[in-house]
């Protein structure tokens, strides 16, 4: 089964927007276009439901129901219980709050493991635990390949390690890390697992329940939704960690780690992401439970992206003037492609913009992996990233533009 890209693109108002006409969007790792169902729900909420939710009058009741719907449907797609999923203002903020909970829970002499492959949001807050006497161990990437190797993690694990934090995939390297194998190794050593799914989730939601991590984080604004951070924390761990919310919310798992009140409208609008997945599943004849439909849509997205990605990797891999970072096999990589050039990545992005290519250059909050691979942060990289709504014609346009710029 092939993804119907015409149907997909019809669900995104951006493709009918005159101001974006003639341009190809290749900075999706920084944030995706928003799908129509999310926009419709957000507008409806502001027009009809913009009241304090969960009161008995009609507008308030409907507002609360829409917020609950978003949590329940997204949790079902991810294979977790509704109260194991919570919303926050961003993944960075959610990670920071979790780190504070761990700061209270851990004792001096305990250790955590972080990687140097991460975006800073899933690294910086955890590294600050060293100020509280927690040992922070770094699982380092191979400086040539940019990959995290399981053997190196196993050498760091012992009875002192209480938490292992790593990305599903890096927003620089793009390699898809084996969550199940890493989680199994960490659990066998008695450690909990936190996965930063921000860079992978745009390419399809996964069954977090089956994969096994104790925490899984991603950003809705990169998965076709509003600017919210979505956090899964499994009940066993959530009950152990100290409450970070209001004291009267201590018994509510989905409120324990959200100190601020939720953005009602954006939480409600997040149900539009579930609407969109359901639309894709129905259009492509995918049936079953929520996790089955979600898995089917995930596979459609990844198959389409992989077919478009391989020619781009082959093209860049054959260029002596660039250093292609990460795997060269599209099956092992999300379509987030970073290349080191002779000059600054931002300059190359500016040249590509003249050819109708929207992309960016810099360090993308990934200074640690860049430094580990010996890349000058002042120069940074050119990053080309796309998702399932990208068309073959847009990739061809990109390749032609690269021919003229590199």
UniProtKB/TrEMBL annotation:
UniProt xrefs under SUPFAM superfamilies: PLP-dependent transferases
GO molecular function terms noted in the UniProt entry: transaminase activity
Domain Aminotransferase class V positions: 25-398
InterPro entries: Aminotrans_V_dom (IPR000192), PyrdxlP-dep_Trfase (IPR015424), PyrdxlP-dep_Trfase_major (IPR015421), PyrdxlP-dep_Trfase_small (IPR015422)
Superkingdom, taxonomy of origin: Bacteria
Keywords: Aminotransferase, Pyridoxal phosphate, Transferase
Classification via Pfam families: Aminotran_5 (PF00266)
PANTHER family (alphabetical): CYSTEINE DESULFURASE (PTHR43586), PYRIDOXAL PHOSPHATE (PLP)-DEPENDENT ASPARTATE AMINOTRANSFERASE SUPERFAMILY (PTHR43586:SF21)
Protein name: Aminotransferase class V-fold PLP-dependent enzyme
Organism of this sequence: Roseovarius phycicola
Biological classification of the source: Bacteria, Pseudomonadati, Pseudomonadota, Alphaproteobacteria, Rhodobacterales
